[in-house]
Amino acid sequence: MSDLLKKLAAYVRSVPEPNVHVVLSQGVSGEEIMMLPSAEPKTVKSELEGRSIDGVSVGEPSVGQIAYFMDGMQRPRGPIYINSSVPMMYGYTAAAIRVRGIDKHMRKLAHLPREAIYFPYELLDWRPYHAAGMDTVDTAERGQKTDDHPLMMAERAKNKIGDIRADLERQITTKWLADFDGRDEWLLVDGSLSGDYDRYEAPNIVGVIKSHQTQYFEWEEQQNILNLKAGERSGVFIPGGRNRPAVYSWYVRLRSNDGRDVYFGLVRVEAAKCERTLDMADEISRWILAERSPLSMPDSRWDRMIYPIRDCELYLKSLAPSAAALDSMLIGLAGAAKKG
User: Fold this and answer.
1) Of 210, 213, 254, 335, which one has the fewest beta carbons inside 10 Å?
2) Does the N-terminal peptide bond of residue 150 adopt cis geometry, omega within 30 degrees of 0?
3) What average pLDDT does the chain have?
């Protein structure tokens, strides 16, 4: 259950003649709650490091030094309207790091959750909600006028929920880097590298990206990437179009895509931009290939998802308020308004 929504219901009951309207169809459900908002496909220029982008076998999979795994989630609900035409979105976000012990069992190392209500402070007073003990987030962009269309406000709120999730991932990763710098174990994060990895000369962190909205090469080179066979990786490159510190990156085909989509089993790997990464690209790829078993079924992304990340997702989901419980509480807000 949600403590924040309990406080919101109590607040509604305290408001004279409250008018509450809740839209349930805007929330997402099922496995979609685990993914960041999708992006439009695009192509950006990138810089090759060393040899061509052509594929090369990395050798046999080998169990390596990856022992920690990080993932995040978000669960938006709403919009909610309370005595106003300004939409508010409820958002539950969290990030977690799980550690695999010598007995192969996964255990919690850290869990960082947050639930808040998202709306533009410029159009709706945040102070009554804070006074009632609720966490709120301003969805307005600094220096920009707030959109005056309710649908645009709701969309901006959803995007902000994704930003907060990413911030939690940065926080939890930054702490791991500070606590484990100098040790042999590595952290694998689901998605692009986050945290203060650029502060370290050679941090033991690697990111695995399952989605491919961004294409980093022109069509001829891109075809070489899409033609990678299982167990092959591309050349190392520096992805363009980033607003974060530079990384080294390369593609790895985890599973054969014979008779399947060109992106089946294809992931992109990120590691710190340092000489050690260039020396270890094959070795890191072999570590990731060794994580293909057991299968992450029944997840629809099983071909690109290693099982420890699936474990992180299930762990996060077990601690989050369920979609059904949140919808029930949101429906109850109207009842709270009548009782108030």
Assistant:
1) 213
2) no
3) 89
- The whole-angstrom separation of Cα 14 and Cα 83 is 13
Measured distance CA(236)–CA(246) in Å, rounded: 13
- Two tokens at 5? 């929504």
Any idea what DSSP says for residue 41?
-
Spatial CA neighbour of 226 closest among 82, 70, 55: 55
Distance CA 10, CA 4 (A): 10
Give the torsion sign (CA, 9, 13, 14, 19): positive
Q: At what angle do helices 323-339 and 3-14 cross, to 10 degrees?
A: 10
> CA-CA distance, 239 to 7, in Å (whole number)?
44
User: Distance between CA atoms of 158 and 74, rounded to whole angstroms?
Assistant: 10
Helix (H, G, I), strand (E, B) or coil at 83: coil
Residue with tokens 């099983």: 302
Mean pLDDT, rounded, for 260-282: 96
DSSP string for residues in 233-270: E---EE-SS-SS--EEEEEEE-S--TTS-TTTTEEEEE
Residues in the chain: 340
Whole-number Å distance between alpha carbons of 66 and 122: 46
H/E stretch holding 205 reads: strand 205-209
pLDDT (tens digit per residue) in 112-165: 999 999 999 999 999 999 999 999 999 988 766 777 788 899 999 999 999 999
Q: How far is CA 84 from CA 39, 88, 123, 135, 154, in A?
A: 31, 10, 9, 19, 14
Please report which residue ranges of the chain form alpha helices under DSSP H. Answer: 3-14, 127-131, 150-180, 219-226, 275-290, 307-319, 323-339
DSSP 121: T
Does the predicted TM-score (pTM) go above 0.85?
A: yes
